[in-house]
Amino acid sequence: MQDVIIQAFQKALQLILSGDSEVFNTVFRSLYVSALGTLLSCLWGIPIATAIGLHSFRGKWLIRGIFNALIGVPTVALGLLLYLLMSKQGEFGFLHLLYTLNGIAVGQSILVTPLIVSFTSNALGAADAQLRDLAKTLGASSLRVNSVIIRETIWSTVLAVIAAFNRGFGELGVAMMIGGNFFQETRVLTTSIATETTQGQFAIAMAYAIILMAIVLAIALTVNLVERLRQEERIRIRERILKRFGRKQP
Amino acid sequence: METRLRLENVEKSYGSIKAVEDVSIEIVGGRTITLIGTNGAGKTTLLRLIAGLEERDRGNILLDGDGMNGKKLRQIATLVFQKTVMFNRSVYGNLAYGLKIRGKKDGEIRTRVDQELRAVGLKNFEKRKARKTSGGEQQRIALARAFLLDPRILLLDEPTANLDPNSTMIIEKAITSRKKGDGIIIMATHNLAQARRLADEIIHIHGGRIVEHSDPDEFFNNPRSEITRKFITGELEY
């Protein structure tokens, strides 16, 4: 098994360094569908999150609960449902999205919508109540109060969008069911891994897996790094204040 | 006609806890009022009711005889919170916010922000990130932000709590400089010496009720309420 892993790393490096066009095309297809899917989900996910996060209404807890629960929806189950809807006889068959990259993107956008809605609405809802009071006492209308809250929690929304992208980028079920895994057409990184594994091409499958993981990790680490820098900055500020005033307290 | 703020039988509860109970006061323009009382006495709630940030359960708030709801109160009153809150933008952005939403022109905003920052001893702070300033500086920014709007009722919730003596002095000076014209300043404080220094009238609130309302001399030398006498001497247990 160790040999396979070592071979896989060698193969991955070889594929990347040789500039293998199919590998790069597969990576680009994956990036394209996940980026488009995330963008689409933002179009409706962020307005829904804003409505849930900033307003009080009957049954809000239930809607929040549903979106929270849908974060973990099995991708194969969603893929099957979307397959039926997008197939020729399905309600959305006229859109001709089945077995296309755009079809996968639409599927992924539906998959990641609960994640965007939950993360963003929770951040908006948890925004410091004093921030709302501050805007109000300075004379802001309800609309302006909401725009201040959105502006102040923009970082949480960015994190939600990145998490959504990663979720789409690493999923298999929707890409397989909607895309059909056609070579050089709709094959993406996750479906390539599945295909190569079933064909016994473990080294190539591992190579794809390494590329997939590298991209996901690079994005996650970049986000963590930025967030850490922000936190360190906050700690530095707090320490400076305590140093200056803390010991003078009665 | 001078400004006249009147509270009639105002009450506010949170669940079973009565935070403000049957409060009736009248304050005329040009006066500085300090609200004193123990923690949880109802000072902050009363300020928030006057600021229009809380809906009262009962009673009326009138300005010059006109009934005021939350929206109307927010147009004439500004509250400076005990825990300073800064928007995540520059000091200038924080100060300019209230003026911008009132449709003031950039040139006027710039001039007035500069004046107010000088008044609170923060000249040349415009470009700094507000959240990166110290606690004392943030409190002064918060005061300047409220001063800029020139509200008819300025509400201050323990503006010098947890600050060093120098910052306290600067803030007290800034507050004193606002004691002009017809505006009303209502300030909650724990600091009895500060109440004596700044107030034209002192209101002692205890258990949500007003137990004493008099001028500083009478308040400290001849309190009518036994609760107030014990509060002043430090004998009041709570």
Full CATH superfamily name of chain A: MetI-like
Number of helices of chain A: 11
Biggest sheet of chain B: strands side by side, in what order?
Answer: 6-7-8-3-9-10
Give the DSSP E fraction of chain A (strand runs of 2 or more residues): under 5%
Global Rg of chain B: 18 Å
Total number of distinct structural domains of chain A: 1
Structural class of chain A: mainly alpha
Order of helices and strands of chain B: EEEHEEHEHHHEHEHEEHH
Mean pLDDT of chain A: 87
Question: What are the main properties of this structure?
Answer:
heterodimer, A: 250 residues, mainly alpha, MetI-like fold, B: 238 residues, alpha/beta, Rossmann fold, six-stranded mixed sheet, four-stranded antiparallel sheet, 9 helices
How would you sum up this structure in a few lines?
The complex is a heterodimer of chains A (250) and B (238). Chain A is built from 11 helices and no strands. With 250 residues, chain A is mainly alpha-helical.
Would you write up a description of this structure?
The complex is a heterodimer of chains A (250) and B (238). With 250 residues, chain A is mainly alpha-helical. Chain A has a single domain, classed as MetI-like fold (Orthogonal Bundle), CATH 1.10.3720.10. Chain A has eleven helices and no strands. By secondary structure, chain B is α/β, with parallel strands linked by helices. Chain B has a domain of 164 residues: P-loop containing nucleotide triphosphate hydrolases (Rossmann fold, 3-Layer(aba) Sandwich). Chain B has nine helices and ten strands. In chain B, the strands form two sheets. In chain B, strands 6-7-8-3-9-10 form a six-stranded mixed β-sheet, sandwiched between helices. In chain B, strands 2-1-4-5 form a four-stranded antiparallel β-sheet, with helices on one face. In chain B, helix 3 packs parallel to helix 5 and helix 5 packs parallel to helix 6. The longest helix of chain B has 14 residues. The radius of gyration of chain B is 18 Å and the shape is globular. The model of chain B has no long low-confidence stretch (mean pLDDT 91). The chains are: A mainly alpha (250), B alpha/beta (238).
